[in-house]
Amino acid sequence: MLYRDAINLALDHAMQVDPRVIILGEDVGFYGGNYKVTDGLFAKYGEKRVIDTPIAENSIVGTAIGMAMMGLRPVAEIMTANFSMLAMDQIVNNMAKLRYMSGGKIALPMVVRMPQGVGRQLAAQHSQSLEHMFASIPGLYVFCSSDATGAYHTTLYAIRLDDPVILLEHVLLYPMDFEFYKVENFDPFKARILREGKDITVVSYLKMVHDVLRACENLEKDGISCEVIELISLRPIDFETIYSSVKKTKRLVVVYEAPKSFGLGAEISARVCEEMFYFLDAPPLRIAGEEVPIPYNRKLELSAIPTQESIYRQMLSWGKGHGL
Q: Residue 78's pLDDT is what?
């Protein structure tokens, strides 16, 4: 199943079961969404449940907050995470805080979903990875997934929660085809071990997971065994799964597309150093994007983010330099 079709199926199933589930955003109705994630839902559920909005991100999120306060379960789409900056007042000051500040009297069962990341020559203002911004805000859950099965179950889980969720997707995952299956008792708060290994724990999420898995296949040929962990929840992070793996491998690598500074890799590396210092045989390695706005030129664009080849080269050099 295509990644985008898995999200569409989750939205459809949620809307079938619960009439309170409402979709709103730019072009989500008749057009079916900029990435066709909501394709067909307007025809099936009508304009009162699949609502095309003006190009006004702060109003989209603010309207969804009001809907949630009044008993609906809105799913708001921001066309790209780059445009979420226009909605940050609502996200940070209302969406994240109203339930807490009301002592739990106000429930906010709402989801704001958005694609992010480097596509193919979308240039600097349309290629950002902003998960670190959302994950730094208390009061929000931040979810993501790297495949169709995870996307389906994570979307359903987020819609059913009574707390606000930021649901991050990646623009290059939408057309990717994956094996799809139903999972009993799916828990997005639990990280997934996608590959077992004994030498290095590699933590990643979203599209980078696939580059990591391919790089680790090549590292296996060089005699380096990697354990790959996919994060589905970025706030909170399942540190227990990471700690357990690091106890075994004694080494940690975190791979992410955003610039290295102040990213999820910094947080994960710091926590592991604080809690697992005496288990480590090497300092953690962060493989991340460069400290530049994403270039438009394709060669420069690829040089600004981790790729399968660069992940492999950096991990091989680092591993050989630390006893592997």
A: 98
Q: Which CATH number goes with the domain that contains 67? A: 3.40.50.970
CA dist., res. 308 & res. 157, Å (int): 31
Residue 180 lies in a domain: no
Same domain, 99 and 237: no
Rounded to an integer, the average pLDDT of 298-305 is 96
Does this model's pTM top 0.85? My answer is yes
Q: What is the pLDDT of residues 155-182, one digit of tens each?
A: 999 999 999 999 999 999 999 999 999 9
Active site residue 267: no
Among the options 77, 126, 170, 230, which is catalytic? 126
Q: Are residues 116 and 198 in the same domain?
A: no
Alpha helices (H) along 147-263: 148-160, 208-221, 239-249
Residue 263 pLDDT grade (very low, low, confident, very high; cuts 50, 70, 90): very high
Residues 292, 202 share a domain = yes
The domain containing residue 204 runs over which residues? 192-321
Q: Are 224 and 254 in contact (CB under 8 A)?
A: no
- Domain annotation covers residue 105: yes
- 40 and 165 in a single domain? The answer is yes
Percent of the chain whose predicted confidence (pLDDT) is above 70: 100
Known catalytic membership, residue 13? no
Tokens 């959302």, located at residue:
134
Average pLDDT taken over every residue of the chain: 97
Mean pLDDT in residue range 25-48: 96
In angstroms, the CA 270 to CA 137 distance is 18
Instruction: Count structural domains, the chain.
Output: 2
- Active-site residue (options: 57, 77, 131, 267): 57
CA dist., res. 29 & res. 41, Å (int): 7
Sheet (strand 285-289) strand order: 192-195, 226-230, 200-204, 252-259, 285-289
